[in-house]
C-alpha cells in the first residue's frame, strides 16, 4: 500500500468496529467522489476525503447515541468536534509517515492474529467466519485488502507508540497521596442552630425593609428580554370531544396490539449450540455430574456468556422441541440436548417472568384516548392545506381563531418559558428565530398539532414593579436577616466550643459522625458540609460553621485518622498510578506527533473540508 493511502482510515477502523461490535453494524459510511481525494496530508501521508468524512460521521453518531438528540455538522463545527477529528487524523498521519520512514511493519501472521480477535467477525461457533467478515466490510464500503492494510499500519503505529511510552511510570507516592486524600477519616460532632433557637424569633420585613432590599437588588427582580408573540394553535387534545369513537374499532385496536396487553410467561434463557448431538450430550453429562458448569462449557468453546444470551423468550420463540422442555423446567437449571434451529444445544434457564393479561374492559379508556388523539390528529392534518391557504390569502391569526378550530394566545416568550405551547420544541425554535418582518406560517407540532405565530414586539429587560414581587422581596429580606442572626449566634457559640465548652452543653440538637471520608454523603447536612469539615487547614479540635437551608451547623473535628489499610485502597492507589502513567504516555505521544507534524509539514485543503461538511448536512 502506498504511503499516501489515507491514514484517516485507521481512525475509522476503530470507529466502525467499535460500533459494529456492540451491534450497530451496517450504519454505512460516506463515499465521496470527484477529483479531490484528500483533505490534508503530513509529509507523504494523505488523509482522504472519505477517511475524514467517515471519522467525523462516526464521532457525530456517537454523540447522537449518547444524547438521543440529532447532532448536525454545523454543531460539530461550532463545538470544535470537526477540528478535533482532523487533529486526531493529522496526528495519526504523522505517526504513519514516521513508521514508513523508519521501515516499521509487521508480518502477515501478526495481522492474522489481530483479525481473529474481533468478535464481530465470529460465527455462532465462536470461530472466525470468512463470510461474516466479507459481508460486514461490504456493508461499510470497505474491502479486505484495505482493511487488513489498515490493521498492518495500526500495528506498526502501535510499535512506535509503545516505544515512546515504554518506561513511563509514576512513583508509588502519587497513588498514596490520592489514597491519603480520599481515605482520610474524620470524626465530626455537630450542633444545629435553627430559627426556633433564636430568643428574638424570626425577623419580619417592614415596608421600609422591603423597599430598601428591592432598591439594593434590582438584578434579582429583573425580567429578561422577552419576545411578545401572538399565536394561533390547534392540538389533538382540543378536538377529542369532536371525535366519535366506534366500539368495534376499539376492539380491533385492542386485538392489533394484543402483545401489549397479553404477555405470555417468559424465561431468561442462555443457549449453547454444538456441532453434534454427541458433543452436546457429553457436555450435559459433565454438567449433571458436577464435573463442569454451564459457564465452564461456554468458556471451553472460546465464548463469553453474552454470546449465549437469548434474553427473555416465550415458548413460541424457541424451536418446537426446545420450547416445551425449557418451559417444563421447574425453577432454574440446564436442559438438553435439544434441537434448535442452529443444531443440538443446551439451554440454561436463569429465571421466570410471569405472564400477565389486561382485558379489553380495563384497556378501553387507554385505547379510547389513543384512538381519539389519532383521529383528531388526522382531522388537523386534513386542514393544514386550508390553514396555509387562509394565511396566503391574507388571514390574520385573529381571523384563523375566529373562523376555524384554532385558538388564539399570547406569550412574552423567553428561553425559560415553560408550559402550554412553550413546552413544544417546535414552538421554542420558531419563537427564537421569528423576526418582526416575518409573516405567519403553519408549523406542525410533534403531537400532530399545528400553530402559527407572529412577533409583535421585543420587550426589553426591565425591573418588575415592586407590587408584582413584594412577597418574593419580603421573603428574600427575611431569609437574609435570619441568616445574619443565626450566623451571629452561631459564631458566639463556636467561640465557646473553641474555649472548651462541650457541644452537648450548647442546648442544641447534637449528632456525631464517626470516621467519615470525603467520599461519604450525609443527607441531613447542608450543601458544602463535607468540603467544610475536610478543609485542609481544619485540624483535630478545630471548629467551623456551615450555613444553609435556614440553619447553621456548628461542626467540631474530634479526630483525624489516616486511611484504613485495605485491598480497596491499595487498588485505588494502583489505579491512579496506572491512569496517571497512561496520561503522561498519551502526552508524550501527542507531543511527538506534533513535533513530526512541524518537521514534515502539514497541508490542509479547506475546500475539500468544506465540501465534506456540505455533503454531510
Automatic annotation (TrEMBL):
The chain crosses the membrane at residues 12-32. InterPro entries: PPIase_PpiC (IPR000297), PpiD_chaperone (IPR052029), Trigger_fact/SurA_dom_sf (IPR027304). GO terms for molecular function: peptidyl-prolyl cis-trans isomerase activity. Keywords: Cell membrane, Chaperone, Isomerase, Membrane, Transmembrane, Transmembrane helix. Coiled coil: none annotated. It is found in: Cell membrane. SUPFAM superfamilies: FKBP-like (SSF54534), Triger factor/SurA peptide-binding domain-like (SSF109998). One of its GO terms (cellular component) is plasma membrane. The keyword Protease does not apply. It holds the Pfam family Rotamase_2. It comes from the Bacteria. Residues 246-365 form the PpiC domain. It is a single-pass type II membrane protein. Belongs to the PpiD chaperone family. This is Peptidyl-prolyl cis-trans isomerase D.
